[in-house]
Amino acid sequence: MSARSKARKRALDILFQADVRGEQPATILAAEAKRAAGEPARQASWLYARDIVDGVIDNREAIDEQITTFAKDWTLARMPAVDRAVLRIGVWEILYNDEVPTAVAIDEAVELAKEFSTDESGAFVHGVLANIARAS
Asked: Domain named NusB/RsmB/TIM44: which ranges (predicted)?
């Protein structure tokens, strides 16, 4: 597994924890930063995970607006917390990270949804992100 794939999993964990606990992602991010400092082997994945979480925090309103616009008949509150976090990561990579090709961002998000969410989540995440990509 690539360092970026590992980073996406770490970012998913941080965003999911913040959502479920009702805490700010920055709080969870700070705790994770302390833990990562003591684990040099995870340094490569940590840096990109932090970029993702910081990017989601900085652009949260616009990201959520995109998700709400393109998630037909689904509100953010109605989505599983994992799907919300995966979609936020995918939207950030598509709209705010020029280093990641759109197809890679979508594929990685779909894989995260398949691994950590419901049976239907992969198709749902793909549909939302593909529509966002086409519109951008």
From this structure: 6-134
The secondary structure of residue 1, as a DSSP letter, is -
The answer to whether 12 touches 89, Cβ cutoff 8 Å, is: yes
CATH of the domain at 125: 1.10.940.10
Q: How far is CA 91 from CA 25, 32, 35, in A?
A: 17, 22, 27
Radius of gyration of the chain, Cα coordinates, nearest whole angstrom: 14
Number of structural domains found in the chain: 1
User: What is the span of the domain harbouring residue 33?
Assistant: 3-135
Model pTM? 0.94
pLDDT tens digit sequence for 63-110: 999 999 999 889 999 999 999 999 999 999 999 999 999 999 999 999
Tokens read off for 96: 């705010």
- Residue 36 half-sphere exposure, CB side, CA atoms within 13 Å? 19
Q: How far apart are CA 136 and CA 128, in angstroms?
A: 12
